[in-house]
Amino acid sequence: MLRKFRIGVLAGVATVALASGPTALAAPAPAPEAAAPTTLHYDASQAPGWEDAVAAGVEQWNSNVDNVELVPAESGADAEITIVATDGWPQATLGPVQPGGSGTVELGEEAVTEGHDKTRIAAHEIGHNLGLPDTKPGPCTQLMSGASAGTDCKNATPDEAEQSEVEGYYGSAAARTPFDGRVLVDAS
Ligand SMILES: [Zn+2]
Known about the structure:
Elements: H1 2-26, E1 38-46, H2 51-64, E2 68-72, E3 81-86, E4 91-93, E5 103-108, H3 109-114, H4 118-129, H5 160-170, E6 183-185
Parallel strand pairs: 1-2, 1-3, 3-5
Antiparallel strand pairs: 4-5, 4-6
Helix pairs in contact: 2-4
The structure holds zinc ion (ZN).
């Protein structure tokens, strides 16, 4: 009785194993359109006093583009985007930064002293890391017009052209734009 039972179990296992092979091979590959967004980690631990501006600037990008998502790096873990506070002018590496890559954002107090909005500064500099150059001089509606839009400009939302440019740098079907690596200084 016991022996017959064990044979039955083994036969059952063999049948399941045979059935799972072809089924697994036949599973369709996920469509490229369904790919998850590119995740970039940022470390703003060296930007004291900019916490709110960084969070708001990051939120602008995360809520307005689909193909890349900015998430805080775990404490002590590697981050593709390093955000630091300085006494000078804001500046940033021109990306597009890719996973495993390295870009730096310097949030410079000099621009704040001149009267520029901290969230717009943070969003603008992160925009450089995401591959956007400056569009100066430009209107306040453009994030990358930066300081040229004047100190009254508090817009931190990338316009549609800026959003679609970033979508193109990170879209699954995009021809990857090589990382630029130049440092763009936003002195005004
Ligand atoms: Zn700039």
